[in-house]
């Protein structure tokens, strides 16, 4: 009985820290976000640091941190199946594998850039936007994060498969330059990927990159709407100052995020 109570208390405390909006929860989530930024910086600087003796030490320290986070996520989740259905769970598991077995899973190391997505998935992301009065920019901020995640994921992929044999810094910059030029369809042609595999990589990068770029432009240009399901017809998106649902005319009571 005692063990069950302790487990429930621990789970409740973790859920409060991970998903709450109290001062202690905000501080805890900010700490997690700062650690995420440090981890992302390490991943991005990996090509410059890979030959240093301390690289593997930091690598395994990050693996230990991510493993601890996965355990905490299991404890805060209502069920294992729900935890496994989260895309970020699989991202963390793959990243953890690349950290624990860097030689064996080298070809998947580019997926580490997906950790950038973890920042946007944390509740603190939207909480801080609201507290600074930028709640109406949530959709734009999410689109920006998705675009950045795509840029660095593709950069990591191109670097891993095409530029890894070059000098760490120069190879990474070439991969990033190629990715930006391809996504923006600038096409200078001074750096191209060889062979059929290179052409297919360029095609996929252009198609997905343009789609995300258009999505970002739409989020910036189109009028701001809030997500508030209509109690009668279920319409999700409404103007921030809407009093009636445009679809069925039902009276709405949309909370003011600024209050």
UniProtKB/TrEMBL annotation:
<protein>
    <submittedName>
        <fullName>Potassium channel family protein</fullName>
    </submittedName>
</protein>
<feature type="transmembrane region" description="Helical">
    <location>
        <begin position="88"/>
        <end position="111"/>
    </location>
</feature>
<feature type="transmembrane region" description="Helical">
    <location>
        <begin position="26"/>
        <end position="45"/>
    </location>
</feature>
<dbReference type="InterPro" id="IPR028325">
    <property type="entry name" value="VG_K_chnl"/>
</dbReference>
<keyword id="KW-0472">Membrane</keyword>
<keyword id="KW-0407">Ion channel</keyword>
<dbReference type="GO" id="GO:0005249">
    <property type="term" value="F:voltage-gated potassium channel activity"/>
</dbReference>
<keyword id="KW-0812">Transmembrane</keyword>
<dbReference type="InterPro" id="IPR003938">
    <property type="entry name" value="K_chnl_volt-dep_EAG/ELK/ERG"/>
</dbReference>
<keyword id="KW-1133">Transmembrane helix</keyword>
<keyword id="KW-0813">Transport</keyword>
<dbReference type="GO" id="GO:0001508">
    <property type="term" value="P:action potential"/>
</dbReference>
<dbReference type="Pfam" id="PF07885">
    <property type="entry name" value="Ion_trans_2"/>
</dbReference>
<feature type="transmembrane region" description="Helical">
    <location>
        <begin position="200"/>
        <end position="221"/>
    </location>
</feature>
<feature type="domain" description="Potassium channel">
    <location>
        <begin position="151"/>
        <end position="221"/>
    </location>
</feature>
<keyword id="KW-0406">Ion transport</keyword>
<feature type="transmembrane region" description="Helical">
    <location>
        <begin position="132"/>
        <end position="163"/>
    </location>
</feature>
<dbReference type="GO" id="GO:0008076">
    <property type="term" value="C:voltage-gated potassium channel complex"/>
</dbReference>
<feature type="transmembrane region" description="Helical">
    <location>
        <begin position="57"/>
        <end position="76"/>
    </location>
</feature>
<dbReference type="InterPro" id="IPR013099">
    <property type="entry name" value="K_chnl_dom"/>
</dbReference>
């Amino acid at each position: 009985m005692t063990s069950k109570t302790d487990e429930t208390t621990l789970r409740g405390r973790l859920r409060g820290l991970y998903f709450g909006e109290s001062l202690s929860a905000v501080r805890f989530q900010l700490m997690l976000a700062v650690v995420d930024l440090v981890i992302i910086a390490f991943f991005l600087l990996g090509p410059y640091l890979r030959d240093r003796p301390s690289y593997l030490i930091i690598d395994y320290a990050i693996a230990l941190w991510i493993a601890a986070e996965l355990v905490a996520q299991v404890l805060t989740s209502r069920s294992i199946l729900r935890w496994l259905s989260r895309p970020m769970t699989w991202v963390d598991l793959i990243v953890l594998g690349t950290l624990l077995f860097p030689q064996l899973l080298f070809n998947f190391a580019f997926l580490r850039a997906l950790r950038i997505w973890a920042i946007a998935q944390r509740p603190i992301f939207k909480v801080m936007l609201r507290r600074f009065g930028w709640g109406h920019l949530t959709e734009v901020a999410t689109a920006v994060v998705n675009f950045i995640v795509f840029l660095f994921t593709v950069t990591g992929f191109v670097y891993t498969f095409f530029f890894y044999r070059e000098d760490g810094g120069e190879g990474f910059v070439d991969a990033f330059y190629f990715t930006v030029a391809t996504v923006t369809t600038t096409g200078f042609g001074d750096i191209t990927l060889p062979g059929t595999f290179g052409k297919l990589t360029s095609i996929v990068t252009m198609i997905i990159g343009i789609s995300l770029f258009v999505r970002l432009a739409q989020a910036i240009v189109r009028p701001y709407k809030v997500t508030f399901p209509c109690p009668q017809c279920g319409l999700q998106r409404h103007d921030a100052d809407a009093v009636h649902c445009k679809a069925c005319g039902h009276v709405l009571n949309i909370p003011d995020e600024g209050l």
